[in-house]
Amino acid sequence: MHSPAAKVSGYVVLMTVQIIFLVLFWLFVRYEKTALPRAIDAEDAGSAKEHVSKYPQFQDIQVMIFIGFGFLMTFLRKYGYSATGFTLFMAALVVQWSVLMKGFLHMEGGKISLSLENIIDADIAAAVPLISMGALLGRTTPIQLLCMSIFEVALFAANEYLALNVFSICDCGGSITVHAFGAYFGLAVALMLRPSSDQNETGKLEGASYTSDIFAMIGTTFLWVYWPSFNSVLAEGAGGERAILNTFLSLAAATVTSFVVSALVSHENKLDMVHVQNSTLAGGVAVGTVCNLLLGAHGAILIGIIAGTVSVLGYRYLTPWLTANLRLHDTCGVHNLHGMPALISAIASAIYASMATVGEYQSELQNIFPAMVGTNGTETKIMGGLGRNASSQAGYQLFGIAVTLVIAIGGGILTGAVLKYTNFRNLKKDEHHQDEHYWEVPAVENKEE
Length: 449
What we know:
Elements: H1 4-28, E1 29-31, H2 42-53, H3 55-72, H4 80-104, E2 112-114, H5 116-136, H6 142-166, H7 175-192, H8 210-232, H9 238-265, H10 273-278, H11 282-286, H12 296-326, H13 334-354, H14 358-361, H15 365-368, H16 390-421, H17 443-447
Helix pairs in contact: 1-4, 3-4, 3-5, 3-8, 4-5, 4-6, 5-6, 5-7, 6-7, 6-16, 7-13, 7-16, 8-9, 9-12, 12-13, 13-16
């Protein structure tokens, strides 16, 4: 058990980090000119209106991050306070850290410009450590979560810059840079923190109750409803509307498929609530990278069907295998909801990139595949681009996911090693998946098993 002094010192560290953020914001962050009280010309006014017009989508993403993710992780019957509370804490921390880390990569005049778009980007970045937290849910301390988030967001920002600005890949909904990175970083940390072979059995509190599963479904519902906003908020022009349409159709197809496959593979052909809570969302991840492309309605639905099937089969067969053979406890099954669907999305992006032409995308090609600007899909001499044809762009899409996996897994292993082998306190087996170590829990709850 933690001593009171150890807990106090831990919270002092958390507050110290917040004060450091305060100093960094004071030194480096300034409002973007559209947010300043000054006479602006017509061009600046249009830019300001565009930023404000994104506020409804910003609200949607806020709901996803703070309510959707939080309640989705309340399925553990004795970990509801921590699931929702630590989600709020981590998201609030990461939003600030992400503004700084991503801002340092795009500084102008030694300062970071702050706008609504920066906050939206930071909100999206908050999903990364929350996904990783899902793989470790109930088995880490707040200080370990803090340390993981600091390292992870720094690596995430660097990888995203590399993928989008150097490799110039298409990743509108963040399936490669957000979902794949968060999932495999978290799995790598979980692998490093895995229990010894004699303690590999499932913990007594590593399970749901009827009530906790209902609360988790609230998270599922919020995520399902608002996922089109998550995927489309950064899309430009008509691509934004396509992103909404494709995401919705993929989610719908994944939901129907998840129900059917769950009934087919589960005990006595009954529906499994784990599949309904998670696999129904896999379509939103699987279509993320390609959501603004010309998939056609049939393409979006096909991606959703594949994602729902793969996700349910992963929960039913792959997750138990990983636990039994690698001692890898993926508490929320992020590999099945975020990891494998993100790989599907990356493969789909390579396929659709290989078929992209100026004739299809017209002027939108510059926004979607900027490295192909001026080509007709086969020419290599271009005006203002990087000399790519469609086949080269497809290769870069695959290269982008490969580099993301290397950085995420490598970074996760290093972070896990720091958490395991340094002075960080690791929870014991009988301390896993329960709130009472960090929260004031009603006495009646403490008496229940």
